[in-house]
Design goal:
Blueprint lengths: L2 E6 L16 E4 L6 H7 L7 E6 L2 E3 L10 E6 L22 E3 L4 H9 L4 E2 L6 H10 L3 E4 L2 H4 L7 E3 L5 H11 L20 E3 L1 H4 L5 H6 L3 E3 L6 E3 L2 H13 L3
Parallel strand pairs: 1-5, 6-7, 6-8, 8-9
Antiparallel strand pairs: 1-2, 3-4, 3-5, 10-11, 11-12
Length: about 250
């Protein structure tokens, strides 16, 4: 029976059972199959993979695994230029925009708070999420591994953290987005760019304390939500500073 040897690196091991993590393991097989099919059969979504070496040489997802092959599988290099080495995914999206699945509503608000164009609806189906990701060149963030295995998805990431602040820190670090962040630029509710507003333009819609203490305001032209630099702003600013790398 043909046998290939596989080794997965770094965070790709999160998808493997403990006995296969951070070590080379043998995989017997009967039928000819692409390396993409084999990798996903192990539970690793193709969107998590950026480089595959077969016997030390880079190959694409269509490579057919052969008896005796040594397959090394590496995660995304979204923040690292690996030069002439052949990637298995399209080049990283340098204008990072996102679409999120139904389980990540709070994360969507936090990404918008950081200034990243983020689509989210709690009624998006899997097929629609995959279509939006592909057609609009958005990074699909999800807690559903099966969704990332859809062939239509070229840029995506499985969110490992469960608490929203941990999720935000994970995404910012994963895609090296700290320098690209432009906090408090987008509406956290509807993703629309905020516009400055004079105090007298919004006075009739302000809580009494905000009307008394603050003079600078932003308004969302989409949902008409009003923002000002109050206690919530300061808490979010301190949080951003706490996760920013030194």
């Amino acid at each position: 029976m043909p046998v290939a040897r596989f080794r997965f690196y770094a965070e790709l091991n999160d998808f493997l059972p403990p006995e296969r993590r951070a070590r080379t393991f043998e995989h017997p097989f009967l039928d000819r199959a692409s390396v993409k099919d084999m990798v996903e059969a192990f539970g690793v979504p193709h969107t998590e993979v950026d480089l595959i070496l077969a016997n030390g040489e880079p190959v694409d997802f269509a490579y057919v695994v052969r008896d005796g092959d040594r397959i090394s599988v590496y995660p995304m290099f979204e923040a690292l230029d690996i030069g002439p080495v052949t990637r298995v995914r399209p080049q990283p999206l340098r204008d990072p925009r996102f679409v999120l699945d139904t389980h990540l509503g709070r994360l969507a608000g936090y990404l918008r708070m950081m200034g990243f164009d983020t689509l989210y609806r709690n009624d998006y189906g899997d097929e629609e999420l995959a279509r939006i990701s592909r057609e609009e060149r958005r990074i699909l963030l999800t807690r559903d591994r099966g969704l990332l295995k859809r062939g239509a998805v070229t840029h995506g990431s499985y969110v490992r953290e469960t608490a929203v602040r941990g999720q935000l820190a994970e995404v910012l670090r994963r895609f090296d987005l700290f320098r690209a962040a432009h906090p408090f630029r987008l509406c956290m509710r509807c993703n629309t760019a905020l516009e400055p507003a004079a105090r007298d333009q919004v006075l009739d819609r302000l809580p009494p304390r905000a009307a008394e203490l603050y003079h600078d305001f932003l308004v969302c032209p989409g949902c008409r939500r009003i923002y000002w630099k109050g206690g919530h702003y300061e808490r979010m600013r301190r949080f951003i500073e706490s996760i920013h790398p030194v």
